[in-house]
């Protein structure tokens, strides 16, 4: 394990940025934290987490796929994917780090998504243990330990010191290039972890019971009468899907300027009326079906296909950001209550 | 007042005045209330809440609920009542099927502001006159209530419930408000500064459409931007400037109909001050056509859908410093 004084964080960031592009969670002009490209003067946020998740760096909202240019009777196909520059993302929380297991299972299984894969290979994830979890946090319900996140490198921060432990070959290679770090004892972070775990125990949702969503109950859950009431006031906006670290649906669209077509993909939301539109129209005609799709996917469909692993990591962003405060916790509790 | 609102909901349902009630439903915490339709007294007793966190404007839900069988009660705070009346003026709500209870309002609280004041892991918020006692996992804090109000409440334009069948609490009046101060600051910028300001703010847009979907003035059954046959469907923009245009087009579309209820900015997950675009239109309308408040009454014609010989000429743009 390595360490550096908290007052020297800027020197650490500068040393990383000399090697690769560095993104850190910093406050933006709206007073919210987001992953910002580090340059001298960008300071680590005091906030628990970013409004948008670390997913955005690996699966951006809009991404070029290919260009087509037609002249006379010829059509030219022009490669226009963004060059994948090596980067480090610092300060990823345990919940967001787990989301990459879920995204990987989707994008890296055959056929492999080469756009996502390039960013995963080029990106180094440096996580940061939580010290002040919020009331909306429930990563514990998914077996995630906020005091001991995974990642290529794991860091812990207290009042004076940042502790740094590399976990993977990528993490070790990065660590070797950072002479600003000095050696220290592994036990240094035990107190930080114990303190965090004491708070985690007090969180109201950390022990959320997620039994009862097994695949043999799929049809029963699908037909649960509670969906009508749960979806009743849903606005049909995409906030929950877009701040979610595990939502991975996208649409492919063409931008035709009359001379050239730019084919790009962009995030899609199952909450939208034209989601998975087919020739015959949509098979989810009202907000009830769209709403049900989102939560069935996270709680039932994804776990059924992935050894019971839920498609949620308990980051709590949807709890904070849904305009009408409807969210996966309320849905899970209500479905269980009605199923009884 | 919190108890009176709940008792009124129970009374209206029990005495048969209405068949259902649109209100706010309790959540996991004290602040995460959800707009909901209550059909039984038991549901109301168990889950109905009116509190400082009942900020959500319920008026848009009346479009659908006024078409349900029987009669529906709705609770409207003063600013919500402007939205409701504007929808009524646009023939979007069937008035005869709605029973309106107006609620006197002291301003609604903004959980984002409480968090931004450094309160993490909030367990409870108690209102004690002008103070908020915030209990958190990391100790108690005392904040000033007025610093934690929703933006629209901090510059409240009116305490008057403009349409109701019954009123809870004192009816209020329109108020002197500082709501145009920020718009005036933007107007005082050079065009380059203003362009940079809006490019910066709108660059954070993630196109979740929450602003549009919550907006009472955006009540089209199918938005042109959602229609895959329109040719302008715009799920995410190919070009970041398109994103900016979405908001500008939306502001034009609701101009003269926007009541300044502030829901767009309340729900924006990226904290974009969208209400400033709408307020610019309201300020211009006031200055060019005389003071006009959308939703204030059922009779006055909107200046943008009416013509008088005194109307300003297009050349006003140049007189006000626009580029020729």
Task: Write a brief caption for the model.
The complex is a heterodimer of chains A (340) and B (324). With 340 residues, chain A is of the alpha+beta class. Chain A has helices spanning 9-19, 94-107, 114-122, 169-176, 190-202, 218-222, 226-231, 239-243, 287-305, 317-321, 328-339; strands spanning 2-5, 21-27, 33-37, 62-71, 74-79, 87-92, 123-128, 153-157, 161-166, 182-183, 250-256, 260-267.
Describe, in plain words, how this protein is organized in 3D.
The complex is a heterodimer of chains A (340) and B (324). Chain A has 2 domains: 2-202, no CATH class; 215-339, no CATH class. In chain A, 31% of the residues lie in helices and 21% in strands. Chain A has helices at residues 9-19, 94-107, 114-122, 169-176, 190-202, 218-222, 226-231, 239-243, 287-305, 317-321, 328-339; strands spanning 2-5, 21-27, 33-37, 62-71, 74-79, 87-92, 123-128, 153-157, 161-166, 182-183, 250-256, 260-267. In chain A, the strands form 2 sheets. An 8-stranded mixed sheet of chain A has the order 3-2-6-7-8-9-1-10. In chain A, strands 5-4-12-11 form a 4-stranded antiparallel sheet, with no helix packed on it. In chain A, a hairpin with a 5-residue loop joins strand 2 (21-27) and strand 3. Chain B folds into 3 domains: 1-107 and 158-176, no CATH class; 111-148, no CATH class; 178-324, no CATH class. With 324 residues, chain B is of the alpha/beta class. The mean pLDDT of chain B is 93. Chain B is globular and about 60 Å long. In chain B, 41% of the residues are buried. Chains A and B meet through helix 8, strand 11, strand 12 and helix 10 of A and strand 2 and helix 9 of B.
């Amino acid at each position: 394990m390595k360490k550096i004084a908290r007052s020297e964080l800027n020197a650490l960031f500068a040393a990383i940025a000399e090697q690769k592009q560095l993104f850190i969670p910093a406050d933006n002009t709206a007073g919210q934290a987001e992953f910002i490209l580090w340059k001298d003067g960008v300071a680590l946020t005091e906030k628990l987490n970013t409004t948008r998740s670390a997913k955005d760096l690996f699966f951006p909202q809009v991404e070029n796929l290919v260009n087509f240019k037609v002249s006379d009777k010829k059509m030219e196909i022009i490669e226009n994917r963004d060059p994948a520059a090596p980067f480090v993302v610092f300060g990823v929380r345990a919940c967001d780090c787990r989301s990459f297991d879920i995204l990987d299972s989707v994008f890296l299984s055959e056929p492999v998504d080469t756009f996502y894969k390039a960013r995963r290979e080029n990106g180094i994830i440096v996580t940061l243990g939580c010290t002040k979890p919020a009331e909306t946090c429930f990563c514990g319900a998914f077996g995630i330990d906020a005091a001991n996140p995974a990642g290529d490198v794991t860091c812990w921060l207290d009042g004076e010191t940042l502790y740094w432990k590399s976990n993977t070959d990528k993490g070790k290679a990065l660590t070797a290039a950072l002479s600003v770090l000095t050696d220290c004892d592994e036990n240094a972070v035990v107190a930080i972890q114990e303190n965090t775990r004491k708070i985690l125990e007090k969180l109201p949702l950390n022990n959320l019971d997620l039994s009862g969503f097994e695949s043999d109950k799929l049809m029963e859950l699908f037909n649960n009468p509670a969906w009508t009431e749960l979806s009743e006031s849903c606005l049909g906006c995409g906030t929950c899907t877009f701040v979610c670290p595990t939502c991975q649906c996208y649409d492919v669209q063409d931008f035709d300027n009359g001379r050239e077509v730019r084919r790009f993909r962009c995030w899609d939301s199952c909450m939208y009326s034209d989601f998975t539109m087919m020739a015959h129209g949509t098979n989810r005609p009202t907000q009830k079906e769209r709403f049900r799709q989102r939560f069935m996917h996270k709680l039932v469909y994804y776990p059924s296909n992935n050894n019971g692993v839920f498609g949620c990591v308990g980051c709590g962003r949807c709890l904070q950001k849904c305009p009408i405060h409807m969210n996966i916790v309320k849905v899970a509790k209500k479905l269980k209550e009605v199923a009884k | 007042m919190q108890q009176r609102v709940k008792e009124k909901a129970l009374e209206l349902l029990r005495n048969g005045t209405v068949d259902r009630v649109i209100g706010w439903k309790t959540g996991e915490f004290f602040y995460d209330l959800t707009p909901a339709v209550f059909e039984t007294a038991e549901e109301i007793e168990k889950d109905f809440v009116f509190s400082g966190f009942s900020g959500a404007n319920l008026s848009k839900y009346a479009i659908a609920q006024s078409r349900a069988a029987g009669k529906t009660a709705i609770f409207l705070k003063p600013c919500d009542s402007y939205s409701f009346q504007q929808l009524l003026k646009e023939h979007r709500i069937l008035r005869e099927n709605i029973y309106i209870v107006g609620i006197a309002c002291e301003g609604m609280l903004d959980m984002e502001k409480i968090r931004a004041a450094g309160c993490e892991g909030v367990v409870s918020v108690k209102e004690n006159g002008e103070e908020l006692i915030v209990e958190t996992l990391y100790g108690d804090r005392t904040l000033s209530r007025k610093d934690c109000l929703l933006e629209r409440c901090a510059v409240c334009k009116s305490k008057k419930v403009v349409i109701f069948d019954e009123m809870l609490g004192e009816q209020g009046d329109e108020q002197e408000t500082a709501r145009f101060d920020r718009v005036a600051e933007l107007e005082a910028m050079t065009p380059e500064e203003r362009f940079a300001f809006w490019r910066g703010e709108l660059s954070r847009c993630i196109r979740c459409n929450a602003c549009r979907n919550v907006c009472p003035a955006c009540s089209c059954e199918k938005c042109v931007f959602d229609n895959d046959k329109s040719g302008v469907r715009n799920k995410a923009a190919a070009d970041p400037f398109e994103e900016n245009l979405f908001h500008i087009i939306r502001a034009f579309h609701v101009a003269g109909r926007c009541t300044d209820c502030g829901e767009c900015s309340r729900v924006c997950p990226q904290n974009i001050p969208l209400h400033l675009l709408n307020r610019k239109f309201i300020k211009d309308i006031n200055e060019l056509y005389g003071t006009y408040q959308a939703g204030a009454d059922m009779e006055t014609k909107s200046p943008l859908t009416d013509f008088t010989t005194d109307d300003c000429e297009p050349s006003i743009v140049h007189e006000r410093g626009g580029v020729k």
